[in-house]
């Protein structure tokens, strides 16, 4: 006779599966959100890409190698997140002082249909001049988004226009194009600058 205090096998199996699922999710979140050892290539965040800058010149990950850099995905028609983030980055660069020259910054448009090199150049003139705007063909942009494990999706509007959903993460990459971690801009610029100065 089975003890009334001992759970039946039919209860234990689903419970074990549930606990295992929670553990797997927790591990995945830690691996995603906590900076790991720098890595690049298909198994990590970052790797080869080819785009065009705001001056119309072709650039790749090799143009960013040699110095740590920040990379942020957005678009010029973004109503609030993108201009706010770019201003925060500009404030951090100012707070870094001379050390800012050790850091590169790239703003990658996820809206190549509207964001030409010329429009990027005009848009970025409102922010720190060290921020480089990058765009390209839809295929080049999609490949770069995938390389950085980012997200971008065109969302139609009610008036025939459209907006872009996209990853709002600011990536910190090392001098070898390896992912270091996400940059926290939701604090005073001086605090973010102090943390970055230890890595550049």
From TrEMBL:
Keywords in alphabetical order: Copper, Disulfide bond, Membrane, Metal-binding, Transmembrane, Transmembrane helix
Presence of keyword tRNA-binding: no
Molecular function as annotated in GO: metal ion binding
Pfam family, one: SCO1-SenC
InterPro entries hit by this protein: SCO1/SenC, Thioredoxin-like_sf, Thioredoxin_domain
Paired cysteines (S-S): 78-82
Binding-site residues for Cu cation, renumbered to this chain: 78, 82, 166
Domain spans labelled Thioredoxin: 40-200
Transmembrane segments: 12-34
Family: Belongs to the SCO1/2 family.
Stored PANTHER family: ELECTRON TRANSPORT PROTIN SCO1/SENC FAMILY MEMBER (PTHR12151), LINALOOL DEHYDRATASE_ISOMERASE DOMAIN-CONTAINING PROTEIN (PTHR12151:SF25)
Record's protein name: Electron transport protein SenC-related
Organism of derivation: Methylorubrum extorquens (strain DSM 6343 / CIP 106787 / DM4)
């Amino acid at each position: 006779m089975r003890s009334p205090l001992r759970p039946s096998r039919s209860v234990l199996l689903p419970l074990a599966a549930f606990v295992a699922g929670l553990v797997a999710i927790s591990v995945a979140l830690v691996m995603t959100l906590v900076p790991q050892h720098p890595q690049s290539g298909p198994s990590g965040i970052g790797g080869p890409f080819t785009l065009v800058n705001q001056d119309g010149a072709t650039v790749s990950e090799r143009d960013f190698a040699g110095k740590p850099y920040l990379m942020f995905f957005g678009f010029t028609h973004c109503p609030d997140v993108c201009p706010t983030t770019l201003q925060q980055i500009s404030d951090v660069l100012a707070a870094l002082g001379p050390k800012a020259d050790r850091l590169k910054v790239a703003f990658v448009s996820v809206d190549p249909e509207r964001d030409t090199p010329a429009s990027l150049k005009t848009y970025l003139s409102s922010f720190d001049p060290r921020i480089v705007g990058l765009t390209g063909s839809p295929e080049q942009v999609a490949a770069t988004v995938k390389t950085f494990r980012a997200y971008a999706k065109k969302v139609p509007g009610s008036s025939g226009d459209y907006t872009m959903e996209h990853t709002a993460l600011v990536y910190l990459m090392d001098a070898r194009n390896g992912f270091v971690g996400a940059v926290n801009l939701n604090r005073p610029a001086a605090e973010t600058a102090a943390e970055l100065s230890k890595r550049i």
